[in-house]
Amino acid sequence: MQKISNKTKQFLVLLLKLLIVGGAFYFIYERLSKESVLEFDRFKTEILPKQSWVAIVFILFLSFLNRFLEILKWQNLVKTITTINVAEASRQVLGALTLALFTPNGIGEYAGKALFYPKEKTKKIIFLNLICNGIQLILTILFGTLGLVYFNIYFNVIPTQYLVIGIVGTLLLILLLFLSKKINFKGYSFEKLIQKINKISKGIHRKNILLGVLRYLTFSHQYYFLFLMFGVELPYLLMLSAITSVYFLASALPSFNFLDFAVKGSVAVFFFSLLGVKDWIVLFISTLMWFLNTVLPVVIGSYYVLNFKMQPQKTV
Hints:
The chain is built from 13 helices and no strands. It is mainly α and about 325 residues long. The longest helix is centred in the middle third of the chain and has 33 residues, at about 120-155.
């Protein structure tokens, strides 16, 4: 009876793996088969012939660097529980990314990484992933706010009074959280969260922040260099302010990873149309960023999903 149970379990795990990988490739195919979005023929005839192999390799390198920095971030944070090498960190990050493709705002990534560890470590892994993603979100908000303020000087996209109200309101909200940190909600409080964060060594936090900044600079400049490849030549700070504003506003919108390019693309069209950039270029670059930084890692992550083995659980 036990053998039947084990075989059934193995079959269900295999079925789940195939559903995840099959679903991932289906959604990727659906997105990439939309010629109206990709404008691939136009890119192939007008843009690609003008590019040197050095420029293409450089853009691909930035995609590798972007994901590699995320892998190093995860390896650094997991030190608080166990030591893993870069290969194992890659397996966990890319495997979890594949699962996150179907979930809103990448929530599936939390469950995906937890599957690589025994059940008793699930809460710790989810917390560490929260720290890992949290610093990236904070940097997105920080750089995005600065970018939006700078962009707003040239194009009054948000009335100044509303922008000031938004910034002041955010600062007041942070202050309120600190003042009410002892208030408990179902056993949770802001104070307990801070205490848990402080239990992690400052060295790990510093490295996490540094890697987070480097990763943000990597993918935001990849965006910038792609615009240069497409012949868009605008002042550096103005371009960067538009890019950081796009990431900031897009991060506030609920989305699935497989629709990430559509969300960022629609926000980007608004900002870059003010700079006189053609819509098809903005949409194509948004799709290309999604392909390079999500699709390619998911293809590799699919291999890890198919070869995934459940962690043995402790028996009482």
